């Protein structure tokens, strides 16, 4: 069996990580298309900070990603310095979306996008990728965004993801997949 380095369920994560329980209904976004928005640090609950702290982890940023009904988020790799793009995601939707992870056949085939924005990422060509894993993602999942991945929302309703970029306390970069697997080994399941 191949080791799952893409996405793992966290046992008993914080249920809701934002202070405002109505955040998704009240946030000002263009719901007509897929999008991305950085969430202000003051909107994050103390519960999430406390939960991360027990593992010597802290937030780097929190973001909201959304897809409209029947749409997806394009094939990409988070950040311009993969593979250290591990996140914890909370997905709010009807249960019909999937995330697909791909193996890149050659690293030199990536195009940089958004280097000067709050959402820098790399975009591979689909023909240069091979599907290696697909999975539904729910609330409280460790998510490897440092390999090519895309999201498809098959439902007739919006899909929202609150995504937390995390690092070990005192470090500059996001934590690697291998390191966070070690730190969270007692609370992860495939």
Molecular structure report:
The protein has a single domain (7-189), classed as Jelly Rolls (Sandwich). The model has no long low-confidence stretch (mean pLDDT 85). A hairpin with a 7-residue loop joins strand 7 (111-113) and strand 8 (121-123). It contains three helices and 13 strands; from the N terminus they run E-H-E-H-E-E-E-E-E-E-E-E-E-E-H-E. By secondary structure, the chain is mainly β.
Keywords:
about 190 residues; mainly beta; Jelly Rolls; seven-stranded antiparallel sheet; about 10% helix; about 40% strand; globular
In short:
The chain has helices at 23-26, 46-53, 177-183; strands at residues 7-10, 35-39, 57-67, 72-78, 86-92, 97-104, 111-113, 121-123, 129-135, 139-144, 149-153, 159-168, 188-189. By secondary structure, the chain is mostly beta strands.
């Amino acid at each position: 069996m191949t080791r799952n380095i893409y996405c793992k369920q966290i046992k008993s994560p914080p249920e809701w990580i934002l202070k405002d329980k109505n955040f998704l209904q009240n946030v000002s976004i263009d719901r007509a298309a897929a999008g991305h928005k950085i969430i202000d640090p003051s909107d994050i609950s103390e519960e999430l900070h406390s939960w991360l702290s027990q593992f010597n982890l802290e937030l780097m940023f929190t973001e909201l990603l959304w897809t409209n009904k029947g749409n997806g988020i394009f094939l990409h790799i988070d950040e311009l310095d993969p593979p250290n793009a591990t996140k914890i995601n909370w997905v709010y939707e009807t249960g019909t979306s999937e995330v697909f992870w791909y193996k890149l056949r050659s690293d030199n085939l990536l195009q940089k996008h958004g280097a000067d924005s709050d959402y820098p990422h790399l975009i591979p060509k689909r023909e240069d990728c091979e599907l290696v894993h697909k999975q539904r993602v729910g609330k409280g999942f460790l998510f490897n965004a440092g390999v090519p991945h895309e999201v498809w929302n098959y439902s007739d309703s919006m899909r929202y993801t609150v995504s937390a970029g995390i690092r070990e306390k005192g470090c500059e970069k996001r934590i690697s997949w291998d390191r966070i697997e070690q730190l969270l080994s007692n609370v992860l399941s495939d």
